[in-house]
Design brief:
434 Repressor (Amino-terminal Domain); mainly alpha; elongated; 105 residues
Amino acid sequence: MIEIQEGPKMKNTTDFEDLLIEKYGEKGSPERDKYDTDSLAFRLGVMLKEARQEAKITQEQLADRTGTKKSYISRIEKGQSDIQISTYYKLIEIGLRKQLNISID
């Protein structure tokens, strides 16, 4: 259990989902949908950056391999661009020559 101090009193929070609900609302609310979208963009960007660095190529080299711009790669890696699955696939499979696996749990 995580304890979070709020001023002079303590609030018990059972998990991360409780924190998200408290701050952004239930899933399906406009605020929560925006958070979930932004969070996904950030996580995809971090994964792309780590895979690119592991492949030892620059953003410019990745852009050249995939027909995109370095500035676009930079925005994706910073989580500042809403990326389509087809574009992400191209960056991973063609640009980095790695396999992209997607699952639904």
